[in-house]
Design brief:
The chain is α+β, with helices and mostly antiparallel strands and 246 residues long. It folds into two domains: 40 residues; 194 residues, Porin (Beta Barrel), CATH 2.40.160. It contains three helices and eleven strands; from the N terminus they run ααβαββββββββββ. An eight-stranded antiparallel β-barrel has the order 1-2-3-5-6-9-10-11. A hairpin with a 7-residue loop joins strand 6 and strand 7. The relative contact order is 0.15. The N terminus is likely disordered.
Length: 246
């Protein structure tokens, strides 16, 4: 009996030694499996495939401008250039570094009120019109094709263009003038009698929207973009937009 008891003790001691030596090896093996570089299921589910299409919406604000010299390509004299605000909303499909944008917006289109002398006219025989703008602007719909080149983890260069149509709203009200000399500074609007007074100008109701732009896109994360753009949108413009991707 004593011999059997000593044998059992030796067997239990051997088993305890095997377990003691084996546990660290099992722990190291498990750690190696955990650190094999493969993402866990949760991490894989959270990862965003950069080539998968995503959809977003953005709001934008901008200023459209034309120097007075460019306005005077169409007329001999104008009171000023144009510098007017606009805003809009865009719906975006992004795939990789390409964005397809469908946008809708509104911009005011006006200079200062004042005298417009048509090409070839010469006071006092041919007098300018005194023009006042009554809510003149356009409502636009357009399609943009934008490409991006990464400059930094969060910063991308963006460039592209597009086209669309603008529906004219509001009026430009024209009043005839009477001039006493060869300079428009001698011309004053009529207040009564024959001639036009606050007569709406004949403006074609639909105009093309021609768009070429470049700028910078900042991506704080995968869901948010902030854009700074400038370019040509029938007139020159600069602006900013912010978007969210779902």
């Amino acid at each position: 009996m004593a011999q059997r008891t000593r044998s059992l003790r030796r067997n239990f001691a051997a088993l305890a030694l095997v377990v003691t030596l084996g546990l660290p090896s099992l722990a190291q093996a498990q750690a190696a499996l955990d650190d094999d570089g493969l993402p866990t299921p949760a991490a894989a589910a959270d990862a965003v495939d950069p080539e998968a299409p995503r959809y977003g919406v953005q709001v934008r604000g901008r200023f459209m401008f034309l120097p007075k010299g460019l306005v005077e390509i169409a007329v001999d004299e104008a009171p000023s250039g144009m510098f007017e605000p606009g805003f809009g909303v865009d719906f975006i499909r992004r795939k990789g570094n390409f964005e397809l944008v469908v946008g809708f917006g509104y911009d005011r289109i006006r200079t200062d009120e004042g005298l417009f002398l048509e090409k070839g006219d010469q006071p006092p025989a041919e007098s300018p019109d005194y023009v006042v703008f009554d809510g003149l602007g356009w409502i636009t719909g357009e399609v943009l094709f934008m490409w991006h080149t990464q400059l930094h983890e969060m910063v991308h260069l963006r460039y592209g263009g597009g086209f669309g149509l603008g529906l004219i709203v509001g009026d430009a009200l024209q009043t005839d003038t009477v001039c006493t000399g060869a300079s428009t500074s001698t011309c004053t609007p009529i207040t009564s009698g024959p001639g036009q007074i606050d007569d709406p100008a004949d403006i074609f109701p639909i105009w093309p929207v021609v768009n070429f732009r470049g700028g910078v896109q900042v991506r704080p994360n995968d869901d948010i973009t902030i854009n700074f753009d400038l370019g040509l949108r029938t007139a020159f413009f600069f602006g900013m937009s912010a978007g969210y991707y779902f």
